[in-house]
Write a structure and sequence with these properties.
With 59 residues, this protein is an alpha+beta fold. The chain has one helix spanning 16-28; strands at 4-8, 37-41, 47-53. The protein has a 3-stranded antiparallel β-sheet with strand order 1-3-2, with helices on one face.
Amino acid sequence: MPTSIRATGEAKDLTLDELAQFVEDARKAGVPGDNPLRAELSMSGKIKEIEVAIGVDRS
């Protein structure tokens, strides 16, 4: 079983639609709403990759 959900931008940077799908997938998987997100940003500050733990993450 995966321990996290991760999304990357299909064309390099994450789009709003891809981010919305990531949030929907996380909600369906039962990810607690207060879990922190981890993101990798491009040099221009755009989101390249985003990840959240499926279980409770207090780190």
